[in-house]
């Protein structure tokens, strides 16, 4: 019998939540979850295909884990975005794969494994239909003190470079009462930080209630006892309203951390990207947030090398990064994805040139970030402790200004033993471009 299951989760935090749900479903069905793939009867890979690099990582991972079929492994299942997008190709070109499960069929994982045992390989479940079950039952893969809270699935923005709407479908908000109930369970589990996620959190409620309800949802989440931080990811700029900014300003639990993907500053490139804001609107929003909330941290992502981006427009972007002074910044090279409108655009940029542009923007940002960090020397910051680095004999963690995995760390000395998830007040003594160093105050 197939009893032992191993799961590898790739890609974004939204994918991680899907993996957590699958693990909970499997344990509830009587399967044993094992960490070592070589001990597993069944191996599951939850994949990503957002850009070329993610696609390559997913394929390499599948092929690497397929080697386990020479040992104990009897079935290899590929789930997620790569499965939804390339279901036929995966089964035809990767004979090692026994089943393909799309983004709407995670709830069937236990039944699919039983079917593999009785019927053999070749199973494909990549349905288009989606209905919100109570998806709060999860076996969390994050540290005990941090949890993601997914409030919606899919996306309606249809940016010309993005394949996500074709894979994940239309935007579907979860019911507010289900989200609040899940957040209360996370609080009861001792979670210190709840990270609210969706492809676009600011669109929340529009499909379900006929109006955007992120401000109301965040207000209700802040009423829950327990978590000290509530962080929000992916607020599209056109829907960051005055009402939403006021909620951030007035709710102490809400981290003043605005994750606002803008992708570019050139009006021509923004229009080609299918974005809904222009440069003037973006600058006005940033100024409004900083004026209303002086300690606001603004993180964004940019795409360089989009088709038609000239040297002049790239220089405009570089100057924009210098002038705005983003607190946090991620830069991606444009990935030409089949099935997107941008795929057929002319004036595609050479790959080497894309990488040159990315490296230059990140060099500019490193200077901006170091200057901002230097201004923190001598101040005291509140840190969510994550662990200890025994090489440098320091504890480390994050401030409200730093999200897990994507931002910097605070390394600090302390005479006491600190548990992961505890908060510490740290006096900043030194800095690097992205990290701070100090001692517990």
Notes on the protein architecture:
With 441 residues, this protein is of the alpha/beta class. The protein folds into three domains: 4-125, Methylthiotransferase, N-terminal domain (Rossmann fold, 3-Layer(aba) Sandwich); 146-374, tm_1862 like domain (pyruvate-formate lyase- activating enzyme, Alpha-Beta Horseshoe), CATH 3.80.30; 380-440, Nucleic acid-binding proteins (OB fold (Dihydrolipoamide Acetyltransferase, E2P), Beta Barrel). 34% of the residues lie in helices and 21% in strands. A six-stranded parallel sheet has the order 2-1-3-4-5-6, sandwiched between helices. Strand 1, helix 1 (13-28) and strand 2 (32-33) form a beta-alpha-beta unit. Helix 13 packs parallel to helix 14 (351-374). It is globular, with a radius of gyration of 22 Å. The N and C termini lie far apart (56 Å).
Keywords:
single chain, 441 residues, alpha/beta, Rossmann fold, pyruvate-formate lyase- activating enzyme, OB fold (Dihydrolipoamide Acetyltransferase, E2P), 6-stranded parallel beta sheet, 5-stranded mixed beta barrel, 14 helices, 19 strands, globular
């Amino acid at each position: 019998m197939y009893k032992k299951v191993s799961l590898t989760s790739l890609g974004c935090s939204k994918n991680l939540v899907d993996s957590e749900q699958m693990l909970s479903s499997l344990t509830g069905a009587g399967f044993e979850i094992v960490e070592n793939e070589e001990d597993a009867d069944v191996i599951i890979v939850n994949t990503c295909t957002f850009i070329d690099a993610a696609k390559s990582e997913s394929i390499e991972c599948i092929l690497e884990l397929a080697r386990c079929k020479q040992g104990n492994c009897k079935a290899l299942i590929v789930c997620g975005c790569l499965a939804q997008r390339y279901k036929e190709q995966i089964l035809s070109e990767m004979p090692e794969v026994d089943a393909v499960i799309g983004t709407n069929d995670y709830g069937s994982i236990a039944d699919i494994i039983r079917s593999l045992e009785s019927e053999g390989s070749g199973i494909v479940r990549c349905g288009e239909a989606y209905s919100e079950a109570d998806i709060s039952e999860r076996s969390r893969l994050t540290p005990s003190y941090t949890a993601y809270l997914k409030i919606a699935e899919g996306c309606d923005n249809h940016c010309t470079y993005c394949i996500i709407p074709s894979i994940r479908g239309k935007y579907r908000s979860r019911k507010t009462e289900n989200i609040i109930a899940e957040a209360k369970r996370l609080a009861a589990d001792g979670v210190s930080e709840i990270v609210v996620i969706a492809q676009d959190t600011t669109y929340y409620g529009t499909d379900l209630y006929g109006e955007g309800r992120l401000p109301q949802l965040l207000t209700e989440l802040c009423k829950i006892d327990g978590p000290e931080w509530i962080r929000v990811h992916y607020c599209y700029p056109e829907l960051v309203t005055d009402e939403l900014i006021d909620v951030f300003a007035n709710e102490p639990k809400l981290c003043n951390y605005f994750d606002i993907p803008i992708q570019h500053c050139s009006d021509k490139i923004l229009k080609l990207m299918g974005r809904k804001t222009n440069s003037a609107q973006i600058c006005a929003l940033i100024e409004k947030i900083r004026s209303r909330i002086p300690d606001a941290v603004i993180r964004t992502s940019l795409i360089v090398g989009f088709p038609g981006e000239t040297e002049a427009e790239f220089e405009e972007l570089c100057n924009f990064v210098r002038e705005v002074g983003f607190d946090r910044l991620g830069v991606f090279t444009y990935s030409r994805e089949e099935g997107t409108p941008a795929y057929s655009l002319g004036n595609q940029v050479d790959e080497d040139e894309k990488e040159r542009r990315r490296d230059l923007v990140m060099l500019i940002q490193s200077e901006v970030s170091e200057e901002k960090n230097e201004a923190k020397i001598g101040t005291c910051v509140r840190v969510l402790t994550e662990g200890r680095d025994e090489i440098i004999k320091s504890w480390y963690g994050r401030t409200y200004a730093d999200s897990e995995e994507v931002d910097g760390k605070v390394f600090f000395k302390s005479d006491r033993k600190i548990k992961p998830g505890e908060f510490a007040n740290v006096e900043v003594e030194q800095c690097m471009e992205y990290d701070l160093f100090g001692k517990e105050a």
